[in-house]
Target: FAD-dependent oxidoreductase 2 FAD-binding domain-containing protein
Amino acid sequence: MEQFDIVVVGAGASGLSAGLAAAQAGAKVALLEKGDKFGGAGMFGAQGLFAVGSKEQEEHGEEYTLKDAF
Model:
């Protein structure tokens, strides 16, 4: 049986980021995804990228734009 230091469940933006960070730090990582594609809710524009430009951001008076994010 193969051994891993870290198992990440879900290959959405957070799972991919966590898996990559762990691998770059030297961990042996297993990334599990139930779907046939990576991306998670980010593939559907659930809240926008990092919630930039979201309704919630606007309601809280935050003015952080996509240009600011990139």
Q: What stands out?
A: Strands lie at 6-9, 29-32. Residues 11 and 37 are 8 Å apart (CA to CA). The first strand starts at residue 6 and ends at 9.
